[in-house]
Fold each of these.
Amino acid sequence: TKRVFSAFKPTGHLTLGNLLGAILPAVRLQDEADCVYAVADLHALTIKHDPERLRARTREAATLLLASGLDRSLVYIQSQVPAHTELAYLLESTAYFGEMRRMIQFKEKSANQEEVRLSLLTYPALMAADILLHRVDLVPVGEDQRQHVELTRDLALRFNRLYGETFTVPEAAHPPIAARVMDLTAPTSKMGKSDGSAAGTIYLLDPAADIRRKVMRAVTDSEDEVRYDPQEKPGVSNLLTLLAVCSGQPVESLAYEGYGALKRDTAEAVVETLRPIQERHTELSADPAELSRLLADGAAQAVERTAGLVAAARVAIGLP
Ligand code: TYM
């Protein structure tokens, strides 16, 4: 069986982009693969953060992953498995400053900022460690993580060449549609937890009324012609994408006379997709001790599963 890993960074509340681009594809992989998913709280330390809020959002993200259907996978919190940081250092010692500096996300997030944390630069080495630790074949991610997974492959190949066959070289798996969900008010930008606008971002825990309002106010264009064309009609195409994925119909089958009806149906499809997730989130939140136990158990299993790989990497690179 194939092995799968992916992670989610709790820099904000999880969004519909996270759900459609990565979480639901990850849920589907559970039927055919051995799946491990983590909340990447260490990755959230790469930008300005508030400790209490981070702790709360880490738990919220873990709860939402389980509530979305990842309850047949191993789920844990990254920082509770020290192997991530240990392997990250070995990969920082494999990676070059030049290739880190050229990462698109680093360039975007560090632009026009005085206080760029060093961990923002080394972020992809930690992400590579997350993936390589689990010797996975597939990494289900949205389009924006493509370059980081490419770098992970490069580092794995380089390490294997320099120090002997140690890592499995993984591949990114992007969903056929919704690999890049756009901001509803700025449909040429990605819908994001921290960078997107609140009005243009649907959060998984948004009440139905907020979801409807955000979709009804989504930016479209002045044509009133419903057609899937991401270049010419990014707003309408984004709505069609949301409707297609949330209603389980192919985009080609969606025909509408005007934007009003398209928006109404899209809003209802999103509300219906999120409803069971929100209900399950409420149930799981009612028993915090059970969640803590589950996550501690997940971390313990992850420690056990990754010990061999870390030992092999240590020996290969020349540590005692
Ligand atoms: P993060 O936390 O920004 O996003 C989590 C996942 O959601 C996807 N995603 C989207 N997909 C479609 N449309 C969007 N608007 C959208 N926004 C986010 C992301 O592509 C991602 O798959 N560095 C990673 C977290 C990470 C990770 C890893 C991922 C840490 N270690 C190891 C995979 C493997 C990140 O910041 O994703």
Amino acid sequence: LFDVRVSPVRGAGGKRQVLLVFRDVSEVQASESMRRDFVANVSHELKTPLTAVSGFIETLEGPARNDAPARDRFLSMMGQEVRRMDRLVSDLLSLSRLEGQSRRRPTTQVDLARVLRDVAATLTLGAETEGVTINVDAEAEATVPGDRDQLTQVFANLLENAIKYGAQPGTVTLHLSPVERDPVIKGPAWRVGVSDEGAGIAPEHIPRLTERFYRVDTGRSREQGGTGLGLAIVKHIVNRHRGRLKIDSEVGRGTEVVVTLPAA
Ligand code: ADP
């Protein structure tokens, strides 16, 4: 896409000439349209729970005013919607903070095995209520230069997805293993696989999963409390750590999300 300016000029000897200036604006246009899409998505995602909450309020003020059991039910649904908005805003803040951060790689030494065990411990109770068992296969001590909080967020997001979209009841596994030389990272690395036994993801969706708000099944994601931002955040953090992210999935068998991070 080009922006063209036409201006009449006087050339040498007073000859009339026309100056044409072509400016390539494709990139400007593309980023402008991405920004518009993003604002539209955010507005829509916030509007949906807001509409629900205002509907509940109307019912509570009217028909359900004196109906105690209905009131309890509506209050609990309102709580759910408000928590969804809260998660959405937290995820948006995380993304915007990550984008504003320097591209420099964090350098604190982080023990990945410890991060995995901590994440699993935090999510065990919630997983159990869904009938999901978490396996952590991380014997070795694995040090990587990184940001502990951000790496914790990566594996918490991936584990939450494995629990949400995996088989219920079922097992999800966190598997840590050393890589002698990763061909892309071009050096020693640590590989963490987060796998589930769920329905899997059709291949055409896989390349788009790290886009903001991209979901395979919006209804299912919403029902599970998802914001559609989890994998976008994961991708950002992994890139900042100079690592790589790969999603292997087979429909009907399950999914393994693999994060590979350069070793210390
Ligand atoms: P969400 O908040 O919707 O879970 P994510 O960015 O974390 O957003 O994931 C994007 C989409 O990728 C999800 O809505 C879901 O459709 C799909 N997805 C992610 N992880 C898995 C998985 N382990 N198994 C199947 N589908 C998954």
